[in-house]
């Protein structure tokens, strides 16, 4: 179920990227050939990149494809690999939750103040909410992964007669 959601989110993010590139191309052509520029095109592209980055964090977290320096971990004993994997996920969860709450407070403030973007007039709480949503999804995925890993370790221990 989560894999299907991740695939759909990835498709949406790809469409946002394609839309940003097309918008950029149209804006460039308009500027150079017709002396016309789309008001707010740059803002919309920036908002799209923010969405790709922070919602993409959810996709990367689920697939466990983040950049990491794991040369030492790969050569460590299996028990240490498991402990480091769980520690990494717990740390990821802590950071995601911290940033979730900080960004939520910021979004709430933006909503209360009614601030809009300069050119498009988009309420600024919307692009900032994308950051909050990205960290919320990342935290949820990390919890699922921690629970799954703990169950796997428990099941392996039980099967081996250690638990």
UniProtKB/TrEMBL annotation:
Function: Part of the tripartite ATP-independent periplasmic (TRAP) transport system.
Localization (cell): Cell inner membrane
Cellular component annotations (GO), alphabetically ordered: plasma membrane
GO terms for biological process, alphabetical: C4-dicarboxylate transport
Domain of life of the source: Bacteria
Claim: Transmembrane helix is one of the keywords in the record: yes
Membrane-crossing segments per the record: 12-34, 46-62, 82-104, 124-148
Subunit structure as annotated in this protein's UniProt entry: The complex comprises the extracytoplasmic solute receptor protein and the two transmembrane proteins.
Protein name per UniProt: TRAP transporter small permease protein
Topology of this chain in the membrane: Multi-pass membrane protein
Family: Belongs to the TRAP transporter small permease family.
Nucleotide-binding among keywords: no
Annotated Tripartite ATP-independent periplasmic transporters DctQ component domain residues: 21-150
Keywords for this protein: Cell inner membrane, Cell membrane, Membrane, Transmembrane, Transmembrane helix, Transport
GO molecular function: transmembrane transporter activity
Species per Swiss-Prot/TrEMBL record: Eoetvoesiella caeni
